[in-house]
Amino acid sequence: MVNGVKIANELSKNDTEGFIPHQEIYDLLEKTKNPDPREVRDILAKTMERERLSTYETAVLLNTEDPDLIEEMFQTAKKIKQQVYGNRIVLFAPLYVGNECINGCVYCGFRVENKELVRKTLTDEELNNELYALTSRGHKRLIVVFGEHPMYSPEYIAGVINKIYEFKNGPGEIRRVNVNAAPQTVEGYKTIKEAGIGTFQVFQETYHLPTYKKLHPHGPKSSYTYRLYGLDRAVMAGIDDVGIGALFGLYDWKFEVMGLMYHTKHFEERFGVGPHTISFPRMEPAVNTPIAENPPYRVSDYDFKRLIAIIRLSVPYTGMILTAREAPEIRREALDMGVSQIDAGSSIGIGSYSEEDPEEVKKSQFILGDTRPLDDVIYELASNGYIPSFCTSCYRAGRTGEHFMEYAIPGFVKNFCTPNALLTFQEYLMDYASPKTKEVGETLIQRELNEMPEGRRHMVEGLLERVKNHEHDVRL
Ligand code: SAM
Ligand code: SF4
């Protein structure tokens, strides 16, 4: 028992629903059907007052089916995103280190039964080649991804993180390493924390216990409860930034959004702060994986946008990650609905940043929807008025919970986040951008400067000048 809460530190044979009260969720989703439009509008007004929604209110939004009200929901989510966070989009890249796995998640190309998958773990030299390729394109933030295997011990993961931070490629370097790997023991997390991890992500995949049991037939991941409390152990080990997520397509999307809300609530009640980020991947095709071709609860593009808007409205101070699983068109539409981070220029074959590999798909967990190069995505973002940001300032200054500060501290975004985003963007333009990206980028930066009050503008101009004189890592 820790803080009065039972922790499943051992693999539990008798999984329980933990803090996901299934019956309560069914009841809430039932009793909020066909909501009165006035009630929906009251809830939207409440979100504009920057109030966190209750699980009942989230259920009302989930049950809103009237297209006009849904459009109002989209517009409100956009306003919150704009007013609270401004127009920054943080960019990162996934780095798949190894695809060995002992689990049997039926939707994943890495599952142990998949004989068509080519198994591979990067050697030190291959890791360096990947880092060379990533930093040569301008990446500064990575998420390293592992299958679940005894080879990928906490010491091994920590070793990979250390090697990444040590790597230098002229001005190129990785400044923040996040991890997506199997949940660890408290001791294991402590080892990984020592290496200077940013966020540790563990997705519950589905919050629906019966579905979870069906889709995770064996291996350590077959325990729902062990995974559900997986990030509690991370926080207990001192990792402040944790990322939760659900894999959409496995079960009813409305139930999964409720699961994410109860998970957030659990963190708030237990640790006084919610998760750093929420991810909401949709299932993608994977080699020799029939269920991924035909998800049992496929989420349409329209419902996908609804769920993004509802998460934004329900927990306005949590970072939201939209991955390159999605095709460019839907990424474009989803962006202004409240997303704060995207990956770009991603490649998810093991070793595929540094080498063209005809077998890439056979080494991949799934198939990406957006394979455009980083510079193309940055060009598009800047052309559409978003500031591409590689900022790692909060993490490196020891300011954890940055999304909460962005939300809760008046002026934080304007005084810190936007200037830092501009500085990292200027650095990218100096070192890596194509001429056309440089041109739209410089125009965007100038426009942002013009909108600042004079004092701040002078200060930021001074810092940008240092970047233009090839000083690196200038930040507030
Ligand atoms: N093996 C660890 C685990 O399962 O937690 C680490 C990460 S796994 C490589 C990364 C995530 O990919 C999983 O948590 C799951 O949500 C997602 N994933 C698995 N199969 C997928 C598919 N077919 N399409 C999209 N995402 C998938
Ligand atoms: Fe292994 Fe993770 Fe894939 Fe499951 S989702 S098979 S644990 S890599």
Please write out the topology.
Layout lengths: L21 H10 L5 H12 L6 H8 L4 H19 L2 E11 L25 H14 L3 E6 L7 H13 L9 E5 L5 H9 L5 E2 L7 H7 L8 H5 L1 H7 L5 E4 L7 H19 L5 E3 L10 H4 L7 H14 L4 E4 L5 H8 L5 E3 L30 H10 L3 E3 L3 H4 L5 H7 L3 H20 L3 H16 L3 H15 L8
Parallel strand pairs: 1-2, 1-8, 1-9, 2-3, 3-4, 4-5, 5-6, 6-7, 7-8
Helix pairs in contact: 2-4, 3-11, 3-13, 4-13, 6-7, 11-13, 15-19, 18-19, 18-20
The structure holds S-adenosylmethionine and iron/sulfur cluster.
The site of S-adenosylmethionine (SAM) has 21 residues, from strand 2.
What would you say this structure looks like, in words?
The protein is of the alpha/beta class and 476 residues long. The protein has 2 domains: 80-408, TIM Barrel, CATH 3.20.20; 414-468, no CATH class. Helix content is 46%, strand content 9%. It has 20 helices and 9 strands. An 8-stranded parallel beta barrel has the order 1-2-3-4-5-6-7-8, surrounded by 6 helices. Helix 5 (124-137) links the parallel strand 1 and strand 2 (141-146). Helix 6 (154-166) packs parallel to helix 7. The protein is globular, with a radius of gyration of 22 Å. The model is unreliable at 1-11 (pLDDT under 50).
Number of helices: 20
| Structural domains: how many | 2
| CA-based gyration radius | 22 Å
Q: CATH superfamily name of the largest domain?
A: Aldolase class I
**Terminal CA distance:** 41 Å
What is the CATH architecture descriptor of the largest domain? Answer: Alpha-Beta Barrel
Mean pLDDT: 92
For the sheet with most strands, the description reads: 8 strands, parallel, barrel
